[in-house]
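lol ok so funny story. i was supposed to be doing the assay writeup but got distracted and ended up predicting the structure for this chain instead. priorities right. anyway since i did it might as well share w the group, maybe its usefull for someone
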Amino acid sequence: MTVGALVAAALALGNLIAFAAGLKIRGRLPNAEGVIAFSVLMGVASVGMWRLRYWAVLGFQALLALIIIGFGLSLVVASSIRGLVIAVVVIVLAGWLFYRLVRAMARIQMPERRPRD
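and the output, tada:
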């Protein structure tokens, strides 16, 4: 859970820092509203996961699933070894984090055991 929260926080901060530094994507500056919306979403997910909120973990897992699917589809059109390696690394790391968060979600939703009288 901690790793997921830290990854979400790193994505939020990294996105904002890259935008503030003027990083261009395909030769163009990204849309400010999109950058801010994504950063806020990742920040909310990070705080929610840090506080062990089920909805935050579920939402972050949905984003991880989309990332895995997107990079899996990019393997079909990979035109270089570098692109292939990047896609495989992202799929493996996102899949590992997804699996770890499934286990964490199970612990979050488990009811507390109360001693019998």
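Helices lie at 2-20, 32-50, 54-74, 81-109. The chain has a mean pLDDT of 88.
back to the writeup now i swear
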